[in-house]
Specification:
- The complex is a heterodimer of chains A (141) and B (491).
- Chain A has 141 residues and is an alpha/beta fold.
- Chain A has five helices and six strands.
- Chain A has helices spanning 18-28, 36-49, 103-111, 115-122, 128-136, and strands at 7-12, 53-55, 58-59, 62-64, 72-84, 87-98.
- In chain B, strand 6, helix 21 and strand 7 form a beta-alpha-beta unit.
- The relative contact order of chain B is 0.05.
- Chain B folds into five domains: 3-70, Winged helix-like DNA-binding domain superfamily/Winged helix DNA-binding domain (Arc Repressor Mutant, subunit A), CATH 1.10.10.10; 81-161, Arc Repressor Mutant, subunit A (Orthogonal Bundle), CATH 1.10.10; 171-282, PTS-regulatory domain, PRD; 299-399, PRD domain (PTS-regulatory domain, PRD), CATH 1.10.1790; 405-489, Rossmann fold, CATH 3.40.50.
- The longest helix of chain B is centred in the last third of the chain and has 20 residues, at 321-340.
- By secondary structure, chain B is α/β, with parallel strands linked by helices.
- Chain B is built from 23 helices and nine strands.
- Classes of the chains: A alpha/beta (141), B alpha/beta (491).
């Protein structure tokens, strides 16, 4: 199993700082340089079409837009149940930002079919760096 | 807490008023001094005086305080037995001891139930045993059973099955469920199964291995605990069944070896009929073998196979029908032996089979009922047996399903649809997934996907060409899976 070839950003946050931290990191790592204001708008638009809850208390908001510079997986860990993007009790969000499907992304999605991945993300004894390593090394931590 | 303290608490809990120390001591078979000491210990250990004493009246337990102190509703594992579990345990105790009687006090020593309940239990057990031609006799405080050995063993076997002791998938699973199999018995019985497999160069699969193991366990325990009388019926059975013995001489030779081993193990000469009883089990099992059944199958088996296949409207021109028939012959041939010899098999997968293949199981069950009415001198086909037969049809129908095609969709074509792809592929490996798309891509090229059987999507969509759509959560839950299955195969 390998889901490398993608950029990963992993961070934890509380409800009030979630969106601020997200846009700050997206800008800092040049995932999006222009139209950053459209990110949240597009993500919310997608959520309105149907739930992206992919595991109990884990959502996967995603956009496929030309203004995304590089395909990036952003894992937001909330530590406890909190409201986010219209959901009331969410523990983590796996945000997928891409400008087009690629093999690495398909591999990554395939890996998410295994519930162990979510257990790893939700387990707070694993640091953010551990989680990032877990994905880079392909679940071999 | 020690057993005397536990029994003492249970005695007090069953009594509304006071009980004297003398009465408790007599009932428990200990001294009065022990009772005084135990009361102190119990109150100390619970941190509150749950047992109160009054001079001249004795002891009484405060139930509310007791519940608070122990913070649980039941006192120990023994009182946790359900009425059925309790009755089954009592029944096994009586049956294994047959024809010797056993006192009611001894039978119910650990259950802490009232006399009325004991009488109800015994009345229920008498009714159950009557169906097996075994009589429950009660004389004074003693209980025993009367019946021929075959009937007693059949009753024991039925009780083991109903106690779920045989709903395990391995010999060691059975051994660990049955509390009184010691390590030596376990080793000996396991060695006998291996002996049979080695001698016949075959592997005995579940549940037949567990069945033979339990048969030998019952045999050992009957000779050890009760008294086995070789009655005239048993002697007659052995002489009447010469033909079966001749037709299965290889199996009979192995059965004879195992009974000889068991005689040596028990230091008791076992009657010859035991060889025949074991032979019944050996010819009633389905085993892994290379034999093809052409020309070796009785008309009775073939008629039964045809009854099942015709019940599903399958004809000789149906695809892969011969393969299904071979599978059914392999199962039904030994099943008829089981029915004839009243050998019960437990199917630990039965609940799963009913859940997964509900309609299929009901159909098989109705054909089994029809078959049972036609068959003479055989036990009816049980749900457990019908469950096994269902699996052959489930395999057949799944393998013969025409390949269906599906398209997976989400808003972007790169998010939940990709994840859904992996999950759908895992759940339906035979489903041909022609692509993962965004709704926009689909709407722009809808004419390219007219032949697709099903669209599985995480966002709502209404195809112009009326292709069937299943709206699924990204988690692809069991309910989503059922929806897809229903849309694809109409189950």
């Amino acid at each position: 199993m390998h889901y490398t070839g993608l950029n990963y950003i992993v961070f934890d946050c509380n409800q009030s700082e979630a969106l601020g931290k997200l846009t700050e990191l997206v800008r800092q790592y040049h995932v999006i340089d222009e139209h950053i204001n459209r990110l949240l708008e597009d993500v919310k638009k997608r959520e309105k079409l149907g739930s992206t809850e992919i595991y109990p208390k884990v959502i996967m908001p995603h956009i496929n837009e030309a203004y995304v510079n590089q395909t990036t997986i952003i894992i937001m860990r909330f530590g406890k149940d909190m409201g986010f993007l219209g959901y009331s009790t969410i523990r983590a969000a796996v945000l997928v930002l891409t400008n087009g499907a690629n093999d690495a992304l398909a591999e990554f999605m395939h890996a998410l079919a295994d519930p162990q991945v979510f257990e790893y993300i939700l387990d707070l004894s694993h640091s953010n760096d551990d989680v990032k390593d877990y994905f880079i090394k392909g679940g071999e931590n | 807490m020690d057993s005397t303290s536990e029994k003492m608490i249970m005695t007090l809990l069953k009594t509304d008023g006071f009980v004297t120390a003398v009465d408790i001591a007599t009932k428990l078979g200990v001294s009065e001094k022990t009772i005084y000491r135990k009361v102190r210990q119990i109150n100390d250990s619970l941190g509150i005086d749950v047992i109160h004493s009054e001079r001249g009246r004795g002891y009484r337990i405060n139930y509310d305080q007791y519940l608070v102190a122990t913070n649980r509703n039941t006192h120990n594992d023994i009182v946790d037995y359900s009425p059925v579990e309790r009755r089954n345990k009592v029944l096994l105790n009586i049956l294994f001891n047959a024809p010797f009687s056993i006192s009611v006090d001894e039978l119910y020593d650990h259950y802490y139930v009232s006399n009325d309940l004991i009488q109800q239990d015994l009345s229920t057990l008498a009714k159950i045993l009557k169906d097996f031609n075994v009589q429950l006799a009660k004389r004074g405080n003693k209980v025993s059973v009367n019946g021929d050995e075959e009937a007693i063993r059949r009753s024991i076997n039925m009780t083991l099955v109903q106690s779920n002791l045989m709903s395990v998938d391995s010999l060691q699973g059975f051994a660990s469920e049955v509390a009184d199999i010691n390590i030596y018995d376990n080793q000996f019985l396991t060695a006998q199964i291996e002996w049979i497999q080695r001698s016949l160069s075959l592997t005995i699969p579940y549940p037949y291995n567990v069945n033979i193991f339990s048969h030998l366990y019952i045999l050992i325990k009957r000779f050890r605990t009760g008294k086995v009388v070789e009655d005239n019926k048993a002697k007659k059975v052995f002489t009447d069944e010469e033909e079966i013995i001749r037709d299965n001489s290889e199996f009979f030779s192995v059965a004879s070896d195992v009974i000889k081993n068991t005689s040596d193990y028990l230091h008791t000469k076992l009657p010859d009929v035991e060889k025949y009883y074991l032979l019944q089990y050996l010819i009633s099992m389905r085993y892994d073998h290379d034999v093809t059944f052409n020309g070796m199958v009785s008309d009775e088996v073939l008629e039964l196979v045809n009854l099942y296949t015709q019940g599903f409207n399958l004809t000789d021109s149906s695809p892969r029908i011969q393969s299904l028939k071979q599978d059914l012959i392999g199962h039904l041939k030994p099943m008829l032996n089981r029915l004839e010899n009243h050998i019960i098999v437990a199917n630990r997968l039965l609940n799963d089979i009913k859940l997964e293949y509900g309609a299929l199981f009901e159909k098989v069950k109705s054909i089994s009922k029809q078959a049972s009415q036609i068959m003479i001198n055989k036990a009816p086909i049980s749900d457990d047996e019908s469950g096994f037969i269902t699996l052959y049809f489930a395999k057949y129908f799944e393998e013969n399903r025409p390949a269906k095609t599906a398209l997976i969709m989400c808003a972007s074509g790169v998010g939940t649809s990709k994840l859904l792809y992996a999950k759908v592929h895992q759940a339906f490996p035979n489903l041909k997934i022609v692509g993962t798309l965004s709704t926009g891509e689909y709407q722009n090229n809808e004419e390219n996907y007219q032949d697709v059987d099903l669209i599985i999507t995480t966002v709502s969509i209404h195809p112009v060409n009326q292709t069937r759509v299943v709206l699924s959560s990204a988690m692809f839950t069991q309910a989503d899976r059922k929806s897809v299955e229903s849309a694809l195969y109409g189950t």
